[in-house]
Write the structure tokens for this entry.
Amino acid sequence: MKATNLAKLRKEMEQRLERKRYEHTLGVAYTAANLAMVHGVDVEKALIAGMLHDCAKCMSHHKQISLCKKSRIQLSEIETEERSPLLHAKAGSCLARKKYGITDEEILQAISYHTTGRPHMSPLEKIIYIADYIEPGRERAKRSYADIQNLQQVRRMAYRDLDETLCKILSDTLDYLSRKGGKIDSMTRDTYDYYCQIH
Ligand code: DGI
Ligand code: FE
Ligand code: FE
């Protein structure tokens, strides 16, 4: 993809997304590009996947569900719940294909799995998942001193070892969900099991 196309996607996201979400999106795109440089991944793909990863976030639940149905995407129980924090990933991948003309399957998969992850992720998928968590504007950084310490540790780790970083983020996410009483999707659990076993 040419630089002008990336600029076009960036403009589309600026118009489409709320201000904070757009700033987060830029943070993810450029953090993903940095991680791609360090880990030998295609930098342009990282920029495009990062730019589009939350593109469905502003759509209604109903629209996201119907987009996934039209594309014959299988959804888990948690993904179909009203106010699901997971659905926008699959819906975003459908939108990236249909509206923004993305045909690269690796980019589309990176968008699909940016919230739950999955076992055997490609390096690009790992980078988007991690960039989403560590980008400079992440509000998690402001929650408490313990979280700031944690985020500093995860950020440093991300430039050394992607699999170790995935294990750390997934175990923190499972802790966070159990404290909050959130239901755990089987894909999040499988990703945790896989990356905490192999690294
Ligand atoms: O869209 P973002 O806010 O940038 O970030 P994201 O797409 O990574 O979503 C993060 C949220 O998703 C975070 O609050 C944790 C939540 N999440 C991840 N896995 C699960 C989950 N929530 C539930 N209920 N169950 C999961 O398995
Ligand atoms: Fe997201
Ligand atoms: Fe995000």
Notes: The chain has a mean pLDDT of 93. Residues 19-39 form the longest helix (21 residues). The radius of gyration is 16 Å. The CA atoms of residues 16 and 62 lie 18 Å apart.
